[in-house]
Amino acid sequence: MQPILIAWLLAAFLSITALAKLARGRQAKLVTALHGYVEEQLEWSRKRAKASRLARKLAQEKAEDEAEQTRLTENPNADPRFDKYDHQKAA
């Protein structure tokens, strides 16, 4: 074989090897970035779910407080230990 052909083959091999190494490095960076994105989305999803649960709980407590306040204003002499429906059943 001629030395120039060997040099060209060696140069081609080294360039292909270098390109493959760069491609693997870029792919690893992209996969890491993708994993980070997925983790952030999962964290935000958990936070939104927690906020939603808290909002539902607070809305339910507010509705119960308003119902209790309405019950007390309708019959201020009622015994607070008894619900007005229980009171009607007992009578």
Report what the structure shows.
The structure is a single chain. By secondary structure, this protein is mainly α. It is built from two helices and no strands. The model has no long low-confidence stretch (mean pLDDT 87).
Kindly report the average pLDDT value. Answer: 87
Poorly predicted runs are: none
Rough shape? rod-shaped
State which percent range the strand residues make up.
under 5%
Main sheet, how many strands, which sense, barrel?
none
C-alpha-based Rg, rounded: 36 Å
Helical region count? 2
Look at the helices and sheets and give the structural class.
Answer: mainly alpha
Cα(first) to Cα(last) distance is 114 Å
Helix amount, in percent? over 70%
Short note summarizing the structure:
The chain has 91 residues and is mainly α.
Properties at a glance:
mainly alpha; rod-shaped; 87% helix; single chain
Fold topology:
Blueprint: H1 3-74, H2 84-90
